[in-house]
């Protein structure tokens, strides 16, 4: 994935490939969620649904890690180099939310 570029409006510019890759991951997660909905409608065994929920949880965490990695190595790195150390407080809050 290419470097992201954060501007003063807190947006991140992504390449077309980055958008395609991230959107593909999101669409897979949506497909997994739709599968669980179907499992519930079909009265599937609770254990099977829980296993699928665990898979979705891992997929979401993996997506978050990809985005976080990109954010740290581009946006945050640049902000720190430019002397905007408050971005570190933002990162600390993000980690607290994901625990």
What does this structure look like?
The structure is a single chain. With 99 residues, the chain is mostly helical. 75% of the residues lie in helices and 4% in strands. The protein has helices at 16-41, 46-81, 86-97, and strands at residues 5-6, 12-13. It is elongated and about 55 Å long. The protein starts with a strand and ends with a helix. The mean pLDDT is 89.
Q: Give the C-alpha Rg.
A: 17 Å
Share of β-strand residues: under 5%
Secondary-structure class: mainly alpha
Basic shape: elongated
Entry keywords:
99 residues; mainly alpha; single chain; elongated; two-stranded antiparallel ribbon
Task: Outline the fold blueprint.
Blueprint: E1 5-6, E2 12-13, H1 16-41, H2 46-81, H3 86-97
Antiparallel strand pairs: 1-2
Helix pairs in contact: 1-2
Task: Give a short summary of the structure.
The chain is mainly alpha-helical and 99 residues long. It contains 3 helices and 2 strands. A two-stranded antiparallel sheet has the order 1-2.
């Amino acid at each position: 994935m290419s470097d992201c570029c954060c501007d003063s409006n807190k947006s991140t510019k992504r390449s077309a490939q980055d958008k395609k890759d991230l959107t593909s991951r999101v669409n897979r997660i949506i497909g997994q969620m739709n599968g669980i909905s179907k499992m519930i409608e079909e009265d599937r065994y609770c254990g099977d649904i829980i296993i699928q929920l665990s898979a979705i949880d891992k997929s979401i965490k993996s997506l978050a890690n990809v985005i976080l990695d990109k954010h740290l190595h581009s946006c945050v790195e640049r902000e720190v180099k430019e002397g905007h150390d408050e971005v570190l407080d933002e990162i600390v809050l993000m980690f607290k939310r994901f625990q």
